[in-house]
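Give me structure tokens for this 364-residue protein.
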Amino acid sequence: MNYAPPLALGLVAVCASFLALVPSGPGQERKPQPALAERLDEQVQGRVRADGFSGAVLVARDGRPILARGYGPANRDYDLPNTPRTKFRIGSVTKPITAVAILTLVQQGKLRLDDPARHYVPEIPAAWEKVTIHHLLSHTGGVPEHTGLPAYRDRKTLPITPRDIVGLVRDKSLDFPPGDTFQYSNTGYILLGMIGEKVSGRRYAELVRQNVFGPAGMKDSGYDEPGLILKGRASGYANLALGPAQAPYLDMSWPYAAGGLYSTVEDWLRLDKALYTEQLLGAELRRKMFTPVRNNYGYGWGIRKVAGHEAAAHAGAIAGFRSAVLRLPDDHLCVAVFSNLVGAGRPAELADQLARIALEEKQK
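Here you go.
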């Protein structure tokens, strides 16, 4: 299990708006912008009819929702519906949030981007001494990946500490000299979580709450710690030949800062809006975050184009869930697609399609 297979490089993210579809209750929306809202909704409904897409979708422009709606059940045992406020595990869409949290520590003067990671995590071997915070944020450190190891496959239902995750690969050589190329590394983001805890003196869950979720007003987002009772959460399912089935269990101590967060599509819009301001980060750090380092990846974001428009994106995959987020800053467009049925709907592809529809409408 990879917490986030990058889409076409491993990424996709989306955000769009105008006015429209504001939920007045579970499964209910009102339509101030019916034409565009209905086009977007019909695109999603097509995925529902074709392969049973289940999840929540938000498209917003200028910070205002055009479409914000749930599709299919959040819990199939109790027939509870998905809504824009349903909490989904977001897999590697966690990485942009971890990146923001680390950059807030840089902004506070507690970290520097060129600091060696080993300075903060003694478990990192001397052979990795040239790996910096910059390299970890941009997946250019050559840190070996732990999710493909037999130990991960055999033990992923059991609790583990971040230190023990690093222990699975610390005796391995770097895959390449730091900075030479791009290689997606969940392990690198595990290290970033450990560094954040060391520098802030707070657990990762508290760090993202205080430095990201709180300031951005994201009250329905957090770290899905093992055993957490979470009101309004979606259950994760796999789409099998005989129909949807409960997804295999994954202890959430494994994904940690690389893929362990939950959120809602409504909360994602709050984050998107905050990233246009100095609410979380100053202009220079925001510029760095969205500037490609290698392979069109910045700090926690893939940078690419959608219909010729600049976009920042990420995709996520974790047991029973898929997610895709996309922000088009020049158009103030935001799209978020969170799904709780693996094998249905292709959220990353759907997010792109919704963004294109919103861009086409703007040009009319």
